Amino acid sequence: MGGVLEHLERHLGPADAGWSRGADGSRMPFQVVRYAGGRHLPGMVAFSTLGLSRRRLRSPPSGRDVRLELLMLLPEPWREAPVPTILQSLGRGLVETRIAIRRGDVIGPQGPLVVPDATVQSFYTALPAYLPDEFATCAEDGYAVAIAWLLPITVVEARYVARNGWSAFEARLAECDPELTDLTDPLRPSVPLQPPP
């Protein structure tokens, strides 16, 4: 996995922990890795899948093959949160269905995420906007690998995406321009939302 891991470490900092087995002790078809934090992510901790991109996934509705790794970012105080279990569950779901997630997809709501009293209950699939443009894709063994950022969002935000579409939601995020540590805080309030004109 040299290509993908080197790419991730270049932007997210050196890997400082990894998980290859699920909570039940079973071997996973990919790893989850935690990174120490890089120059682009002060005050943040990053987690990603590693090896998920070995599986070809189908992108609806085009049907073309896609290879993905999943990314989660959290403020540094959440370094020990049960993110590996979350990424294992989401990644295993992709392996089983063989269907890729796309920008703008919402996973959930599925109850409080990360911690029991979290306000965020869904994941929004986004481009990794707080990182340099070249981070969004890398190459491995001759194929392109996309990095899908799983942004935890509130129920209100998930409903907004369902009603108004992903582009309206991202436009609203751009207008609010929250700090990354605020946007990724599992206890944050919903961003101010309004119907698009």
What can you see in these coordinates?
35% of the residues are buried. The protein has helices at residues 2-12, 83-97, 155-164, 166-176, 180-183; strands spanning 15-21, 27-35, 44-50, 57-59, 64-66, 68-75, 106-107, 120-126, 137-140, 143-154. The model has no long low-confidence stretch (mean pLDDT 91). It is built from five helices and ten strands. Helix content is 26%, strand content 31%. It has one domain. Strands 1, 2, 3, 6, 7, 8, 9 and 10 form an eight-stranded mixed sheet that branches. The protein has 197 residues and is an alpha+beta fold.
Give a brief outline of the structure.
It contains 5 helices and 10 strands; from the N terminus they run αββββββαββββααα. The chain has helices at residues 2-12, 83-97, 155-164, 166-176, 180-183, and strands at 15-21, 27-35, 44-50, 57-59, 64-66, 68-75, 106-107, 120-126, 137-140, 143-154.
